[in-house]
Amino acid sequence: MKTYTLVVLVSYLWACNSQVMAEDMTAFEGTCHNVTANADGHVKLMVSEENNRLTGMMSVSGWLMGGGQITGSRVGPEYKFTSTDPYGMTIDWQGELQNGKLSGEYVVEAQAGLPRQVGEWSVELQGRLKPGDPPDANVAENVTTAMLKMEFERMLNAPVKQADGKYISGAQNVFQVVHPSGQGISIWVENVGVEWKTGKPKNLNGIHKLSVNYTLYWQGVLTPSGWTKIRLVYNANIDAVTKHEVVESTGTTNKDADDLAFGLGVILGRAAMEKMLGP
């Protein structure tokens, strides 16, 4: 299994950890439905706002793919922004925030050989940090956890360069280790459990253990709509991935699927985690 470039992940997380202290940062999570293709997906959204201008990151997973960096604006409760994924696909989103729920419609204009597509989306507020607000451990914990979920999901779905110089999707990279044949569609990070260090703030600096539960969505000949649940556990105190295993699957898995432990164990090295966790 090819290793992921976690340095990119931890560098971004470190930047975000500093950014949330200085800027308005809001975390949302929910679902989307592609009306054109009649397919469902998951949405994670991190929005930073300054003078009604929106920037941030977005991840779309499940049976749909997309997301990436976002730019846009907010006028009152109305949000409008565009996302651009690593492959260059752009999606226009618009929605209205009501009682902690941001929902609306999206449009994917015809591009890269794909037809125009439309859909609906709805996400719920997970937490918000605003400059000048009094410290709130619960809000900081919620935003940090949402940030971790977003970035692990983006990392796992990012294109991976093969030995021949060609790129494959992150989902296919995991799929070919776990399953004998078929196509990986995307990876959805369902949750990230954090065990905090005693007496430390509930942000990236205070993490003791991380447990990441994610689902690989895939298509096969015998199982056209398959999924595989995988769990990763990292212990920062001993600098080791202590578990990375297939929990459940609707398809046949390879006998050497235990190589997953090696594949992510390599990238979660001391230097990378020190950048994430700090001194």
Instruction: Report the mean per-residue pLDDT as an integer.
Output: 82
**Strand runs, count:** 14
Structural class: alpha+beta
Question: Number of folding domains?
Answer: 2
Q: What share of residues is helical? A: 10-25%
Low-confidence stretches: 1-22, 261-279
Beta-strand content estimate: over 45%
Number of helices: 5
Order of helices and strands: HEEEEEEEEHEEHEEEEHH
**Order of strands side by side in the largest beta sheet?**
1-2-3-4-5-6-7-8
Strand count, sense and closure of the main sheet? 8 strands, antiparallel, barrel
* Terminal-residue CA separation: 31 Å
The dominant shape is: globular
Report on the structure:
By secondary structure, the protein is α+β, with helices and mostly antiparallel strands. The chain has two domains: 24-129, Quinohemoprotein amine dehydrogenase alpha subunit, domain 2 (Lipocalin, Beta Barrel), CATH 2.40.128.120; 137-277, no CATH class. It is 23% helix and 47% strand. It has five helices and 14 strands. It has helices spanning 6-22, 137-157, 170-178, 260-267, 270-277; strands at 24-34, 39-50, 53-62, 66-75, 78-84, 90-98, 101-108, 117-129, 160-161, 167-168, 183-196, 207-219, 226-235, 240-249. The strands form three sheets. An eight-stranded antiparallel beta barrel has the order 1-2-3-4-5-6-7-8. The protein has a four-stranded antiparallel sheet with strand order 11-12-13-14. Strands 9-10 form a two-stranded antiparallel sheet. Helix 1 (6-22) packs antiparallel against helix 2 and helix 1 packs parallel to helix 5 (270-277). It is globular and about 55 Å long. The chain starts with 5 loop residues before the first helix and ends with a helix. 36% of the residues are buried. Residues 1-22 and 261-279 have low confidence and may be disordered.
